[in-house]
Amino acid sequence: MNEIGMNALDRLCDIVGGDAVLVDDATLLRFSGDMTENREALPDAVVRVRSLPQLQSVVLLAAQHRIPLVPRVAGTNLGGLTIPTHGGWVLDLTGMDRIVELNVEDMVAIIEPGVTFAQMREALAKTQPRLCIGYPLSPPETSVAANCLLEGLGNLSLRHGSMGDWVNGLEVVRADGSLLRTGSGALGVPVPFGRAPLPDLTSLFLSWQGTTGIVSKLAVQLWPELPFRERCFVLTYDRAAAFRALCELPRLDLLQDMGGLSWPTAKMLFGVERPLERDPAEPEFFFYLDLSAATEELFRAKRLALREYVHRLQKDGLRVEQPIDVPSLVRIEPRLGELAEFPTRLGFFLDHPYGGLTWVGTYGPMSRFVAACEHGIEIIERYGFPPTIVARPMKGGHFAVLRFIEVFQRDSPEHVARVRACNAELLEALLGHGYIVYKTPQWAVEHYRPKLDPGYVRLLKELRALLDPDHVMNPGRWEL
Ligand SMILES: Cc1cc2nc3c(=O)[nH]c(=O)nc-3n(C[C@H](O)[C@H](O)[C@H](O)COP(=O)(O)OP(=O)(O)OC[C@H]3O[C@@H](n4cnc5c(N)ncnc54)[C@H](O)[C@@H]3O)c2cc1C
H-helix or E-strand containing 378? Predict the structure, then answer.
């Protein structure tokens, strides 16, 4: 590190305290990569930021010295988005973990970026049990705000769309250390109730991966936790049944959530480390379905309607079983408990001995789901990976999630090369069906670059230059 860098580090210690600036080899290594195939890069320091004044001063200091900044909470985005490709400082925001407000009347929470899904669940259960938030399948220690900022998805996304849609407003530290409030917060109204009717500046920070500013507070919508609810599984033995249910069920408006997982996930759940072949007697897809209602009568009616729907599929000759409620299943097979309650920790993805986990996760049109999925299965199998798929309808069926997951050996150059080639082919094929990668890794941005609308590229570059003139905000992301 040069003299300027050393001076900056001294100033940094004055701001956050010497114990919050980590430069030891083990820490730098830990923050240099993630579980994916994306290339590692060492930061110059990891900085534990605990408050807004600290965050503003650190950003200002970095701006003065042109030091790259990478905001990070748990680093589980699976797109290499917190790898410090240009060195600099990784800002560990896990300590900014205040739930500033849980507003039951207006159904909104104001949170700092370090607030985790586990923390949110506990706080809601303790103080506002009539409200809930959507949970992704990501580990409980991941950030609620980060998933909103990445426009991720959770178990209320069938009804309410991606979590980016739930953001009512933001408080953001800009690249010069100054502060900005978006949404209704821009007018300082007491409740951050939404983004309309002001020009929407919130979206300047959604899916931008920290390249336009660092969010210090986020107002996120909460939803009613209905008293009558049940999670059940539906097992399907052929794809046709699964695909049809995926497209049709959202339109019946019965379900609170619907997520489909393909057979390799079930095998991994049952302890098979590398499932390669499906026994034809085993289900090809299983869906977890959440039913909920405000009254018992309505709940029973929805349950009945669901059974009737499945019966219709059966009458049409599709191989599908009637719903089985999760508590009964868990009594028979405790390992299914991992899917009974959210947030959950899918240990078979995180703790397997090969160390690597990656995906091509996309959003796309429901009408093209079947073709996109079939095409993706052909590709992933050709590369020797089992077709590990997460599928779900979003926002009442307005679009779909299609995610192909690969578990791989991170220390094997052959595996890494195969994953890269497979993901590149998946991305191109899925795009051909209208499916676009979310939490876009830089390798995907490079594929999209020649295809993007020139006007879009121009404005994106202009905005980026305006909001980050020194190009220090999470550089290496959305480079066009
Ligand atoms: C097994 C597994 C399952 C998963 N399932 C799902 C799923 O079902 N749905 C889903 O949506 N995701 C899923 N994920 C992805 C991921 O876990 C979630 O997106 C999670 O919420 C990200 O939180 P994080 O704390 O890891 O964010 P990080 O990875 O730390 O950060 C994510 C991005 O946000 C930026 N960022 C962080 N803080 C700020 C800030 N304050 N201001 C500006 N930018 C910031 C970072 O620079 C980075 O670009 C899964 C991941 C795993 C490993």
Answer: helix 369-382
434 CA from centroid of ligand 1 (Å): 24
Structural domains in the chain?
3-92 (3.30.43.10), 99-224 (3.30.465.10), 228-437 (3.40.462.10)
The 8 Å CB, 24+ separation contacts for 189-194 are: 191/103, 191/106, 191/108, 192/108, 192/110, 192/168, 192/219, 193/106, 193/108, 193/168, 194/168, 194/169
Instruction: Give yes or no for residue 476 CB within 6 A of ligand 1.
Output: no
93 pocket-lining for ligand 1 (C-beta < 6 Å): yes
Q: Is the sign of the CA dihedral 347, 350, 352, 353 positive or negative?
A: negative
pTM of the complete model beyond 0.90: yes
Ligand 1 touching residue 164 (CB < 6 A)? no
Tens place of pLDDT for every residue, the chain, 480 residues?
666 677 899 999 999 999 999 999 999 999 999 999 999 999 999 999 999 999 999 999 999 999 999 999 999 999 999 999 999 999 999 999 999 999 999 999 999 999 999 999 999 999 999 999 999 999 999 999 999 999 999 999 999 999 999 999 999 999 999 999 999 999 999 999 999 999 999 999 999 999 999 999 999 999 999 999 999 999 999 889 999 999 999 999 999 999 999 999 988 887 888 888 888 889 999 999 999 999 999 999 999 999 999 999 999 999 999 999 888 888 887 887 888 888 988 888 998 888 999 999 999 999 999 999 999 999 999 999 999 999 999 999 999 999 999 999 999 999 999 999 999 999 999 999 999 999 999 999 999 999 999 999 999 999 999 999 999 999 999 999
